Amino acid sequence: MRESYQSIVPLDGKTITEIFEHYFKQSDQLPSRLFLVTAHNAIFGLLLQKLPNADLQDLDGWVRSEALAATIQDHKLFDLTAEEILTRLFYKETIRIFDAQSVQSGCQEDPAKIYSMLRSLGRKEVDSILKEFGEVIVSDDICNREYRLDALAVDAIFREGGPTIH
């Protein structure tokens, strides 16, 4: 996909596990379960997701995997490698461990979308915000970025091209 997709899903649940599972269910993700074990100042987590078409290869595989993963309660897990943990939990299953990959932020900042949104509000509305607060502040929660626009920046938005943000 060239365009990133975003949606808002309420944080419903009493525990972190319930919140994550609710999010996955409501955001049309693959069936997912999150299992957490805590000890002192550490946490161990296992995210289990059902692969597409998995039922074609193993009709009860998902139910069996959920049941086996639910047995994860042993605090000794903190001393084991990922391969050892998976082998203990899924002892009769074929285990494949993939090479670790670094995690990278996938945020694609696009100030032009912010400017377009402000233009869609109309000059009158944006000027009223500017008059009331002295600046227009737009929070991009996805990229954890705040856009602060003064009167000159607002003028530039409503002129062709828009402002340049540094």
Automatic annotation (TrEMBL):
Gene3D superfamilies per record: helix hairpin bin, Hsp33 domain, HSP33 redox switch-like
Keywords: Chaperone, Cytoplasm, Disulfide bond, Redox-active center, Zinc
GO MF term list: protein folding chaperone; unfolded protein binding
GO CC terms in record: cytoplasm
Keyword Zinc among UniProt keywords: yes
InterPro entries (UniProt xref): Heat_shock_Hsp33, Heat_shock_Hsp33_C, Heat_shock_Hsp33_N, Hsp33_helix_hairpin_bin_dom_sf
Residue runs in coiled coils: none
Name this polypeptide is given: Hsp33 protein
Organism, scientific name: Nitrosomonas ureae
